[in-house]
Amino acid sequence: MLQKYDPVMAKHVQQSLRNATYLSNRIQNDLIVALHNVVQQKIVSSLNAKMVSIIADDTIHCEHHEQMSIVVRYFDNEKHSSVKHFVSVQRLLTVDAQSIFDQLNDILGILKIAWSSVMSACFDGASTMSGCTVGVQMKCKERNSEILYVHCYVHCLNLVLVDACTSSKQNCL
Questions:
Q1: Out of 3.90.550, 3.30.420, 3.30.1760, 3.30.310, which CATH number does the structure's domain 48-173 have?
Q2: CA atoms in the 13 A half-sphere facing the CB of 127
Q3: What is the 3-state secondary structure (H, E, C) of 143-160?
Q4: Nearest by Cα to 73 from 139, 131, 122
């Protein structure tokens, strides 16, 4: 399929020996893992000793299981701008605050991000995430009491849009 859209790939497939195309599932997966490792190392080196914000959101996968995406954001002094890195999508086997926090903590560990360098955490407004007594927000603050919780603006906008789209006489005028 790739050869249909990529002339370099088409040339490779046409000219390579049939037993040396390097297109098997195993080799493709190995290449993906290798690329992942290189990109992850670049991200880890760019995050070195910087203050970061974390953004985490859970969604339902098309196969009907929960997954959490994680983004890390920091300010780059050389570029004079904020930088965002999409760092992970994790399947959530359970959706309680402790399990979600454990997954988040594992990812931060892999990225060598200390909780002391996390300035803010952005989650949706669900009590599992935003709860100030038993939610993920509270568990983050147990690691760093200075973390600022931010309710995700996209979720706020979504709530406004859902409310605006509900059928009522006031919205129909």
A1: 3.30.420
A2: 2
A3: HCCCCEEEECHHHHHHHH
A4: 122
Angle at Cα 144 formed by Cα 55 and Cα 150, nearest 5°?
35
Token readout for 164 is 């605006």
**Which pLDDT belongs to residue 159?**
66
127-152 pLDDT, tens digit each: 677 777 788 888 899 999 999 888 77
Cα–Cα separations (whole angstroms), residue 125 to 29, 53, 128, 157, 171 = 36, 17, 8, 12, 24
Cβ pair 129, 136 in contact under 8 A: yes
The domain ranges of the chain are 1-46, 48-173
